[in-house]
Every structure is written in C-alpha cells, then in structure tokens.
Amino acid sequence: MEDQGKIKLRILLSFIVVLSAILLVSDDLIIKNFDIKFKNNFGFSSSQNLIYNVSQSISGIIIVASILIKVKPYRISYLFIFYIQCLQLYWVFFHVTNTSYEYFSFSVIGLTLLFALLIVVINRAVKDNEYKNQKIDYLKSMLDLQLILRNKTI
Question: What parts of the sequence cross the membrane (predicted)?
C-alpha cells in the first residue's frame, strides 16, 4: 500500500498534468475573455498565435517532466491531455459549424473513451503475455533441473 506522502504527490502531479491540458486551450480562454494584445508578438501573426505556441511548449515540458519523475501521476490524468489534443485535431480536420457543434463534443469524448479502452486492452494483453512467459520460463527451469538430477544419478 502506498504511503500518504506518495499518494498526495501523485494527486498533485495528476492535478499538474490536468492543468497542462487546460493550458493547451488557454489561448482561446485568454484572448476571448480578456482581449489581451501584445505589442510584440515575437514574429507570430497575432497574440493568440503567440499564446498558443507558448502554451503548447510549456504543456509539453510539463508532460515530459511528469513522465520522468520517479513518482508517477495517476494515468487517468493523461486522458485530459488526450481529450484536448483530440479536440484540436478534430477541429483542424472537421471544422465545426454551428449546426454540428452539439455532436462535436460527443465525437471527441467517444474518441477519448475508445483510446482509453484501447490502452486497457493493450495493457491486459501485455500482462497476459508476461504471465505466459513467466510460466514458460518456470517450466523450462523445472525441466532443466530434472535433466541435471538425471545426469547426476547416471
């Protein structure tokens, strides 16, 4: 069982991963709600593009850091990042019109759930394969032991 400190750290890291997912859509939240415009866009065509690219970079750094830390966040927190990335990808390829907006969220939620199901199935297959390999290795070692014992008695 995990100790309380490790659980609290995992919850904190999970919260940070979820925040990095929210950071991915921060350009829309900031520009639409606060109408922020920078004097210098550092070569980007608009302040929104600048915020978008900076938030993408920071979010990526947070995600990589969360993977590299010895104590891992709960895996479910990564679904938020996947959901936001699917939103962005879906928006690029299937631009939403006002008539299809209500189905847009359902499509992305469905895709996220399919991804989660795929991960569960793959993890299960890997664990089953590892278990079978352990059984095979155990049987091989038992057979080798029997061969050694037979050779000593002969």
Answer: 12-31, 51-69, 76-97, 103-126
Distance of alpha carbon 81 from the chain centroid: 6
Question: Average pLDDT, stretch 80-109?
Answer: 74
Two tokens, residue 56 = 């993408």
Domain hosting 136: range is 96-154
Distance CA 50, CA 16 (A): 22
Q: What is the pTM of this model?
A: 0.66
d(CA 108, CA 122): 21
The total domain count for the chain is: 2
Residue 59 to residue 34: CA distance in whole angstroms: 21
- Exposure string of 7-28, with b = 16+ CB inside 10 Å and e = fewer, is eebbeebbebbbebbebbebbe
Which range has the worst mean pLDDT, 85-89, 97-101, 107-111? 97-101
Q: Which of 47, 62, 95 is at the close of a domain?
A: 95
